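Title: Comparing notes on inverse folding

I've been comparing how different people in this forum approach sequence design from structure. To keep things fair, I'm posting one structure and asking everyone to reply with a full sequence. Here's the target:
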């Protein structure tokens, strides 16, 4: 199969869909790789690195899209990229369609097959292709939050871990999944006081077993959220409903009860955000202030550390790319229900029930892929 890796064009996005090592692995399986010139610049991988791995270097994204049967990316297609997709072509990337009805309909209209990293599943119910970026984003959320708490950045002028004789910051993590766990680890490492809210008692038990008495584990109720939100200096929004828009847990009214110059890092912004006042920002202008609360809502947080992120992502996606390339997308999905769960659009139809409901579109049952095989 001919596989294309275009350069990412979303603002301040420096990751790339495949490392040179990933290219070499695919070439060794008999596949052809076409990589856009400069695609690896953000991870210090030159065109020559990709050539040595066996890739052909294309002069433009248009050339990559025209040549490839399978497009491997990082971020959702931008409008100009949707214009280059064609019926039957396969796009494998993060899509986050539930938060963007316009993109959902535009992608469906191309006739391409859109498989989303973030809805591919595993036997244990986890999301294996979302996990590596969730790990990165969770750790970055504390770095970003600590910076935002500095007075020059608009915050209250606090050092996250305090110093002897001065109390550390109160950190509230909403959601104890992969993002939340990594945020907790980083915040505790910096000696902040950390509370996590989650609706799963088994998950809270796991977190307590891992972090012990350092971590305050609280079952998530409305009362608990209101109480701990009012005390927090830094809030990390780490909620996730797979494939769906994030629930708006922090209303404008609750925001008004937060401390002046406190900080929200809304990692859920890719799925619309968990604060009513959140809106996507970029690394160039990462924050804004509402009701004297600093909001950090960068929609591609792992793009700030593209080398780490790209290698972590390729490690996770490569086995799936190989399966799609070896068998063809339809056969690969027919054989693997977990990969099939990643299918969001197919032949002009929206094939993920949660996405269809979120954007107000008709849902096409996924059995159509089995029948096509």
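Reply #1:
Here's my take.
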């Amino acid at each position: 199969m001919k596989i294309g890796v275009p350069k990412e064009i979303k603002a301040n996005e420096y990751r790339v869909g495949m490392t040179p090592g990933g290219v070499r692995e695919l070439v060794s399986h008999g596949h052809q790789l076409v990589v856009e010139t400069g695609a690896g610049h953000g991870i210090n991988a030159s065109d020559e690195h990709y050539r040595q791995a066996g890739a052909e270097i294309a002069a433009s994204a248009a050339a990559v899209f025209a040549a490839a049967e399978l497009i491997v990316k990082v971020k959702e297609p931008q409008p100009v990229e949707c214009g280059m997709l064609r019926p039957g072509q396969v796009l494998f990337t993060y899509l986050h369609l539930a938060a963007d009805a316009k993109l959902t309909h535009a992608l469906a209209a191309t006739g391409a097959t859109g498989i989303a990293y973030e809805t591919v599943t595993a036997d244990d119910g986890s999301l294996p292709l979302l996990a590596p970026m969730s790990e990165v984003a969770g750790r970055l959320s504390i770095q970003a939050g600590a910076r935002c708490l500095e007075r020059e950045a608009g915050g209250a002028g606090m050092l996250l871990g305090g110093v002897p004789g001065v109390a550390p910051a109160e950190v509230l993590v909403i959601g104890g999944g992969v993002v939340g766990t990594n945020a907790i680890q980083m915040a505790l490492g910096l000696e902040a006081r950390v509370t996590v809210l989650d609706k799963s008692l088994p998950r809270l038990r796991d977190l307590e077993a891992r972090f012990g008495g350092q971590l305050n584990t609280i079952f998530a109720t409305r009362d608990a959220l209101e109480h701990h939100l009012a005390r927090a200096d830094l809030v990390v929004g780490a909620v996730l409903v797979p494939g769906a828009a994030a629930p708006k847990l922090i209303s404008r009214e609750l925001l008004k009860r937060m401390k002046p110059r406190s900080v929200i890092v809304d990692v859920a912004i890719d799925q619309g955000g968990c604060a009513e006042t959140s809106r996507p920002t970029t690394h160039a202008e990462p924050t804004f202030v509402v009701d004297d609360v600093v909001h950090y809502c960068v929609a591609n947080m792992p793009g700030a550390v593209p080398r780490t992120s790209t290698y972590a992502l390729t490690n996770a996606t490569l086995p799936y790319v190989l399966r799609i390339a070896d068998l063809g997308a339809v056969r690969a999905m027919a054989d693997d229900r977990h990969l099939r769960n990643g299918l969001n659009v197919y032949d002009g139809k929206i094939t993920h029930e949660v996405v269809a409901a979120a954007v107000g579109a008709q849902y096409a049952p996924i059995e159509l892929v089995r029948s096509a095989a």
